[in-house]
Amino acid sequence: MKAFDYAVARNPAGLAAALKAGYTLQAGGIDLIDLLKTGVEPSDRIVSMAALDEYRQIEVTKDDLRIGALVTLQTLAEDESVRTHAPLVAAVAGSTASAQVRARATLGGNCLQRPRCGYFRSAAFMCLKKGGHQCFAWEGENALHSIFGGGPCRITHPSSLAPVLVALQATFQADNGSEATAYAADDFFRNTDQNLSQEHNLASDQWLTSVHIPLTAQQAGHVEIKPRAHYDWPEASCAAVRTAAGWRIVLGHVAPLPWRARQAEAWLGDRTLQDPAEAREAAALAVADAEPMRDNGYRVRLAQAAVRRALLQAGGHPAEGLT
Amino acid sequence: MNKVTRNWMINGTPHRVETPPLRRLLDVLREDLRLTGTKEGCGEGECGACTVMVDDEVVLACLLPAGQVPDGAEITTVEGLEKTPGGRLLQEAYAEKGAAQCGICIPGMIVSSYALLRRGPLQAPDAIRTAHAGNICRCTGYKKIIAAVEWAAERWPETVTPTE
Amino acid sequence: MAVKEVTTYRVVGKGIRRLDAADKVRGQAQYADDLHVPDAWHGVVVRSPVAHGRLRGLQRSPDFDWTQVVVVTPEDIPGHNIVDMMGRDMPFIAYDEIQYCGEPLALVAAPTRQLARTAVAHITPDIETLTPLLTLDEMVTQYKTNPPVLHELSAKQIRKGQGAAALADADIVLEREYTAGHQEQLYIEPQGMIAIPEKDGTLFIIGSMQCPYYINPELCETLDIPPERLRVKQAAVGGAFGGKEEFPTLLAGYCALLALKAKRPVKIIYDRNQDILYTTKRHPAWSRYKVGLNKDGTLHAVQCEFLLDGGAYTTLSPVVLYRGILHAAMGYRCPHVAIDGHVYRTNTFPNGAFRGFGAPQALWAWESMMDELADAVGLPPHTFRLKQALQQGDTTPTGGLLRDSVGSPAVLEQTLARSGFADKWSRCSLGRAEDKAWYGIGCSFFAHGAGFTGDGEARIKAKVALDLEPATDGQPIVNVRVSSTEMGQGTCTILPQVAAEALSIDIAHTGFPMPDTFKVPDSGPTVASRTAMVVGHTVFQAGRKLKQQLEERVAALLFEGQPVELRENEFHGKYDAQTVPFMKGAAAVLAADGPLRVYDQFKLPAYIKWNQDTFEGDAYPAYSWGCNVAEVWVDPLTLEIKCHKITAYYDIGRVLNPVLALGQLEGGLIQALGYALMEKITIKDGKYDADRMQTYVVPTMLDGPEMDIHFLEYPYADVEPGAKGVGEIPMDGLAPALANAIARATGIRLRDLPLTPEALLKHGGFAAPAQTA
Known about the structure:
The complex is a heterotrimer. Chain A is α+β, with helices and mostly antiparallel strands. Chain A has helices spanning 12-20, 32-37, 73-78, 80-85, 87-95, 99-104, 107-112, 118-121, 161-167, 185-188, 262-268, 276-286, 297-314; strands spanning 5-8, 24-26, 45-48, 58-60, 64-68, 171-175, 180-183, 207-214, 219-225, 236-243, 246-252, 259-260.
């Protein structure tokens, strides 16, 4: 590791000043040492926002559930108001990583974590995302890479919470010390053809302060598929939520950002999934435009199963799959 | 790099630590304080051998920059367990049930057990498995560890006072 | 069936708490990295970046101040630049041809690890790159098309009856191929070693190891040091599983060479990434069977080709091969057998010892084959196995006679009955489209040779000592002095149990100090499921000797010459009711005579006949037996595989400590579950691609199935107390039982380990996802 400067922000103004001075932001710090060790994170100046307790609040208003960016996954899993008003969020938080990680990892950090792509994480590969000239996944080992979203870079978005939040139409609240900005769910994450260096739309002087989840869900389901180890990253997930405006079906871990299955959403319209066959039909449509590579065809199958099962769950049908 | 000073209560004893803030808590414990009970198995948060408690939460000392542990934090490592009735009960349980084989995962494993049981009676049927899923043991197949935690959980309310 | 009459034991057979439990649960056990050696420097290895090449030279950058570090190159090696293992083909430090990626080119030590690494970054090797052979797949392709290009590290064959020629007479002949990939031991304590040059010229090596008497003498030739000046001591070992059998010699050598040049202690503690990349793994294996059956479903002839990917150098591969081929057609009656085993070089780190030592690879294929054969003759797999399971009086593929202590077919019958196998087997899913989840059940049946192969035990003649000496508190204690090590499996408890049994004293009066070659005789390496059987027996004999000597001395000192018997912790006079507690009697002997040591040595029974050249005779003194039944669910959509229950019976002879023995079986089965279903390493650019715990995934507490495990004790009559082996056998049978279960669940036979959803998808010809109802 290089020599580092490390600052702890005592208030939002201090954080804003540090970011303007080029410091890199850190929340729970779960991934920081690894990113520094492997040289993926080139910054030698780190500012921690961990001391900013104002971002650890959970609040319920008549319209929404507001969760501070520094709320830990463990709190998300256990907090009564989250369990009541956003049960999908509580469930996902509780099944992510290990107890030790859940105790430190934050909502913001989970949404903003860097991709797990082996090429990106390896010091030996100067990949496109790190400023190199090529995404090695296209020709290389790509079992764990994207099946949606095209390129140029074939990462998958690693966050387990992000697909759920996007499905719930959460807004992502950001600040830069002088001005607050609210990003709509569909405007917060971005694909690699829009920007290679980061997976979200925050400006370099902005930080995530909270996430607001509207209390409008009428039906909801969520499924994660982890064929290897129970506590690892899923290989596919799906969050399906119906509001008065219709369905939002969002796939996780299969695209560079939480991936909306728009064809399936459109086909479902305002159906309430009384008939389980509707879930199967929608699931087939959800993966109709998948673009697997040499090694990751299996993920298409997983994505389809995730959509189908999330929809069955949302429709109140008996659960499928191994328990 | 600049150093930071932290005053921590480690296993009930006050310690003043001066360290570069991005140094891992694990290195501060093992190298500066010679608390070598806490182990490094993987250095990337996967094996759980470095599990310690910071203010009632289990954390991975190999991922945690020391600078992120605030002044006044209470840190409990495997060496601190025998100072508490619950810790001693768990040690007895692990020994009695044959839960320690090579023993290298045990310092982290037993801290996870301690943190779990301190939180009160077990609620979910898979509470023990879930709480220890981040602690890898390559020897035991986990069965005897689960048996030890169950054994301690059954006895916990009788022997451990709430003020522990 | 001759089951040895059960003797009543006082200490043996009890689930006595481990002697090291208190230290381990308190975090007090001292592993290599916990040892405080204040002035130790840190060693780092300069490694080859290519898998195959010719070293032209090493450039040291002038930008670095080389006076702050010590660099060792081949010229600095006092003795021969060779690792004194089988084959003698591996240099300690490469100087010409480079055979694997990561092969040492030089060693560096510095006051801090960081500085040592910086120095390494300033050394640039100049290498002419050659074409490597990297994978088992490439090796097998060459074997089939152009075998002379392969570099053979070892070969051995077995012939029984007419061999392969008998296939011509068979009614049905079935041919199948199977492969198994690398497996990483993944002990949670990475490799670590410290070398300390002592003032008296002794070199002291302490660290994480299974076999202190491998390092001495193996290092003597390299260091040009007489054995009596090389002291090797074991620190607490945080798991080994074979991974700390032969490899520690290399690490000890790196530390020793640096320490001798730096004239100060040098330690090397690998981090996880180095440990996975640059230490041994289980040999990848390929098996091809041609098996001939009679119409009635009995085995007529077995032909097997068994290939191991040896990695770059010979090391222990020949012995792994031997154990592999000896298990490749074991378990069943068959008059004609031809097995040809080969180990070939690939340009990867030398593969080595791992729990099971070739047997799991062989049995993976053989027990999968048994199910395929049963299918071919239209018999259920359990019926097919029961029809021809070996029994007492039968002969093995090498013609060895199963004389006694034969748990077959009892373990097979019992496991089948307890698991309800026949009924469940008839109700498996076989990939039925209408099933929401596919159920399958499968079994495997196997023997595992206990102790060294053939006459190995006769050659090594395990030596043990028992010391009656004062403990740190001054009280008498009987210390077991052996080179057999504790690495989690329970040696430190079972051997004191055996000693206490032989002496008829309480286990509290016994101890097991960490093995130190300056203090313990050579009881052989801690490998091959031999500790309980061979070393245990020898400790028992020594215990009996010590008992007799103590009785004589206590009779003279405290009973005025009256004959005395040491019984249940007391010395009893023959003629009167006088008794003296053991501790009092022992203290009197210590006070009068000083410390007392007795030795004993293992003698292989004379009837064990083995021809190492022809591989004929009694391959092992005895066999443990086991049967695994695995039950699985497979998700028809995601093809996820979940094993929810394992039922198993084992005959491991006398069970010395049921808690520890069960711990071995439970832990071994979960390690076998990882081998079967999740642990996977492939080679990418000459390197292992799964090089960290995030990518090399092993079972967690959430992954374990229900385990219903039982013992059937058929004690081995030639040893006291009659133990066979338990360490390796849990690794042997789960992979084929799972493959057999998956085949019954899905209708798909997988022939490559690990068994993954992707493999089911690839081989299954399943409907494209869009059509799946």
